[in-house]
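Researcher: I'd like a candidate sequence for this fold, 420 residues long. If you have to choose between options at a position, lean toward the conservative one.
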């Protein structure tokens, strides 16, 4: 006769080893739910393959509004959302509300990513997010016009200035009075911070705040970079560039009215669409450098994080690992043209056959520079606000580049004294 089980503890142990794990219910804050939002489909695939239930929350298209929503949820320690899609500049800002993924990810899930992105997502030794897709600033140029006027792709900002002016003036004399030499993101918002970082860092002027939290902006290279940028307005750039965001710059370039443009990779497929005035007339290159510096592209992109208030942190981390795994990133690149965060995919034959443009971005993405967001933590919105406002003042001519740098140095130092 079988002997009865002697203790309830033994019974529980046997049950735990024979019964399947209970299904988890995970809520994911995806994108805006538009045609380019791959998150709902991938999340559902994961849920079906693993016996879980997934709920999808669509979030505002505006990063500012999305961040506000997250801050409300996390600030109230809400358990309504388990997994969040976070912008590249938010890890330091939201770190206290996010789990350390090192504690939950399957073995090897945090390997094989672009190192600079992993560094960006690590706050005080804590891995708070895994990179999903990335962006980096690029120089778009009209190769037909450069060929027509016998000009090379500019390697320095001064060369861009000279070439843009020459072609702009020649085109205007030929009857195209709407032609401009260079358009970029000059409005007083986060986009201007990314542009200014590229100008200053490419001149060897640092990244405003370094990796140790020291303010570095007050130097001659930063002044020189901002002085050249300010000289563009009303010369090779329209006065209205001081109110341009990404789409305004794209509109001018895509209409055929700019020789050069700084923008993100998403512009490529839009500019090559059938019927656009610039279809097959433009190319991309790394952004120019300062006279003795190097090309610098500010990193953009999105990542996946797990809320510290989740009831299911293990299952949530498993979903993050799935979303950022090579197979899912490959599908994201092929179907949506998103730039992978895994270097191996920039050499993948299927990816390059579907999106040849991605292969051209490898060096730019690998050498991209993050904004000083992780080191400044929850002070970053104020840091960026100070940067883009003072740079905008310099572009507007209300203060000199020297004054902009000095004022910015004082403002950032004051924020730093309060503690990053």
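Model: Candidate sequence:
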């Amino acid at each position: 006769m079988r002997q009865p089980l002697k203790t309830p503890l033994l019974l529980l142990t046997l049950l735990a080893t024979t019964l399947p794990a209970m299904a988890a219910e995970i809520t994911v804050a995806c994108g805006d739910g538009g045609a380019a939002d791959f998150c709902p489909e991938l999340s559902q695939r994961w849920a079906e393959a693993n016996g879980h239930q997934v709920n999808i929350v669509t979030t505002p298209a505006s990063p500012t509004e999305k961040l506000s929503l997250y801050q409300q949820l996390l600030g109230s320690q809400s358990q309504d959302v388990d997994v969040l899609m976070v912008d590249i500049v938010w890890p330091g800002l939201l770190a206290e509300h996010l789990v350390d993924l090192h504690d939950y990810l399957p073995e090897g899930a945090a390997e094989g990513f672009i190192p600079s992105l992993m560094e960006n997502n690590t706050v005080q030794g804590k891995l708070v997010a895994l990179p999903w897709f990335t962006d980096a600033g690029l120089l778009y140029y009209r190769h037909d016009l450069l060929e027509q006027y016998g000009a090379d792709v500019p390697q320095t900002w001064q060369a861009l200035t000279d070439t843009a002016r020459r072609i702009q003036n020649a085109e205007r004399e030929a009857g195209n009075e709407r032609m401009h030499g260079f358009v970029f993101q000059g409005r007083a918002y986060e986009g201007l911070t990314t542009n200014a970082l590229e100008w200053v860092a490419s001149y060897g002027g640092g990244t405003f705040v370094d990796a140790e939290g020291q303010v570095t902006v007050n130097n001659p290279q930063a002044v020189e970079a901002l002085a050249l940028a300010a000289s563009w307005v009303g010369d090779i750039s329209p006065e209205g560039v001081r109110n341009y965001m990404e789409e305004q710059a794209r509109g001018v370039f895509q209409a055929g009215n700019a020789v050069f443009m700084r923008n993100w990779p998403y512009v490529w497929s839009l500019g090559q669409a059938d019927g656009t005035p610039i279809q097959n007339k433009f190319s991309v290159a790394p952004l120019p450098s300062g006279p003795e510096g190097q090309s610098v592209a500010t990193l953009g992109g999105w990542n996946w994080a797990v809320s510290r208030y989740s009831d299911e942190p293990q299952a949530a981390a498993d979903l993050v690992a799935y979303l950022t795994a090579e197979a899912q990133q490959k599908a994201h690149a092929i179907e949506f043209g998103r730039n992978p965060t895994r270097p191996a995919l920039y050499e993948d034959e299927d990816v390059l056959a579907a999106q040849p443009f991605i292969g051209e971005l490898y060096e730019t993405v690998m050498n991209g520079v993050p904004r000083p967001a992780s080191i400044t933590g929850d002070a970053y919105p104020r840091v960026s606000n100070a940067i883009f406002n003072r740079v905008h003042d310099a572009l507007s001519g209300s203060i000199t580049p020297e004054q902009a740098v000095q004022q910015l140095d004082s403002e950032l130092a004051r924020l730093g004294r309060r503690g990053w």
